[in-house]
Write a structure and sequence with these properties.
two-stranded antiparallel sheet; 14 helices; 6 strands; mainly alpha; 458 residues; single chain
């Protein structure tokens, strides 16, 4: 394997691993803030215990997310120095704002929230967790501002082989940011909701702390159905935006080899990427045009046509991403999303009818439903990043041109293996701690200081 492929594998593994923690951090921060708001408004001790219980999970997840996120920035300079040199003048501003403003905001007020239960007034303590939630979401925004430049470059000029920012407000107002950011945040809220529902279901099935976990489950269920509906709604807008600015990604996600008007939606396709045609396909007429334009006609460009168009625009080369990866990532993401929506909708219906939710035949599977948002999040990012290939910055720099010229395949291989093993160990520690506290319940949780000792040692 060459340095480019190995560097891609390394960055992909570390990014996906890091992104296991990001959505849960986003979702839990808002859910915990809602629970503490209920405590402050009602004065009921139940909501305080709920807030503290779920807050421990947030702390574990937040710590792991910070540790794994730092590594990514080092990779920019080591494995992707040519890419960093090209986009450094663009990326510097949003990444600096994310670190200096959003991350410090959430870290500072998280410390106040952890140690301020008996030191701050209830309203001041509540304000701290809402500021943590705000900071978490602002961190996501600035990271996505940087990522959106890779997807849809705006507000720049290329000077002496480097992209130079010419309009900061264009970077923030990038239309890609404002379909990607709401989708990412809504996915995070969904992840937090299903995490709380899954652990609550585990405890309810064992008839432990039924009042606390029944209320937690109900809050998370309402929160979850709203969140997953927003994911679907914003995801639809994001798909329409993709048709306009990254048509090759949409064509790959649909295994659409030839342009069609009206365009058909693939129900199931086995394709031959080498020859750019179908081996077997079942398609529904007009549905892809409906999804792309909200009407039953409208052209969606195909892979073969786009390949010829890109060769004329950018020169000879292969501009087709992995159709297999894009096609199945898209379907796993969408399938998991709709499964979460129907599952949470049916549960909400049972709650509204005052049926006992624990007796539902499907309820025993709710702990496993924690995996659904993670499957959707991971495949969603695979589609986002793999569907853009061969570009690292769409239309401006190919991935192969962004790799450090002095890095050998052997050195990347060593660090790839090392990161994978260390991250695997960290994942084991994270799952152990989350499972330990999920099984323990709210009364036997370790204090915050003891959790910090478990994570980092003395």
């Amino acid at each position: 394997m060459n340095p480019t492929s190995l560097a891609q594998w390394q960055f992909g593994i570390t990014t996906i691993y890091h992104f296991f923690f990001v959505p849960l951090t986003i979702g839990l921060s808002v859910l915990i803030a809602i629970m503490e708001t209920l405590y402050v408004r009602t004065g009921q001790e139940l909501y305080k215990r709920m807030t503290k219980f779920w807050g421990k999970f947030f702390l574990i997840n937040f710590a792991m997310g910070v540790v794994t996120g730092i590594v990514q920035e080092f990779q920019f300079g080591m494995n992707w120095s040519e890419y960093s040199r090209f986009v450094g003048n663009i990326f510097g501003a949003p990444l600096a704002i994310e670190a200096l403003l959003a991350f410090f905001l959430e870290s500072t007020f998280l410390g106040l929230w952890i140690f301020g239960w008996e030191r701050l007034s209830p309203k001041m303590h509540l304000a701290a967790i809402w500021l943590v939630a705000f900071g978490v979401n602002m961190s996501a925004l600035w990271i996505l501002v940087a990522n959106s430049f890779m997807q849809q470059p705006v507000g720049y000029a290329v000077v002496d082989g480097q992209a130079v920012m010419t309009d900061f407000w264009a970077l923030i107002g990038n239309s890609h940011v404002w379909v990607q950011f709401p989708h990412t945040v809504a996915a995070g809220l969904t992840t937090g909701a299903f995490f709380v529902m899954g652990i609550s279901a585990y405890q309810l099935l064992r008839k432990r702390e039924t009042a606390l976990f029944n209320r937690s489950f109900q809050i998370a269920n309402i929160f979850g159905i709203i969140s997953v509906f927003l994911v679907i709604l914003v995801g639809h807008s994001q798909g329409q935006h993709m048709v306009q600015v990254q048509p090759m990604k949409m064509a790959a996600a649909e295994a659409l080899w030839e342009s069609e008007d009206p365009a058909s939606f693939s129900l199931f396709t086995i394709g031959d990427q080498k020859n750019l045609n179908d081996v077997f396909a079942v398609r529904i007429p007009r549905v892809l045009s409906l999804l792309s334009y909200n009407r039953l006609e409208g052209e969606v460009k195909g892979i073969r046509n786009l390949q010829m168009e890109y060769e004329l625009q950018y020169g000879q080369g292969n501009y087709v991403p992995s159709v297999f990866t894009a096609y199945w990532s898209f379907r796993i993401m969408v399938g998991a999303g709709f499964l979460m929506f129907f599952l949470s909708a049916w549960t909400l219906y049972r709650i509204m009818r005052r049926w006992p939710i624990v007796t539902g035949r499907y309820f025993k599977y709710y702990p496993l439903a924690i995996l659904l948002p993670y499957a959707a999040n991971t495949t969603g990012w695979l589609l986002t990043e793999m569907g853009r290939q061969p570009w690292v910055v769409f239309g401006l720099m190919k991935t192969a041109d962004g790799v450090s010229s002095t890095v050998s395949a052997g050195s990347v291989m060593v660090t790839l293996i090392g990161f994978t093993l260390v991250y695997g160990l960290l994942m084991g520690v994270d799952i152990y701690l989350l499972a330990k506290h999920a099984k323990a319940g709210p009364e036997t949780l370790l204090p915050v200081a003891d959790i910090s000792t478990e994570l980092f040692g003395e």
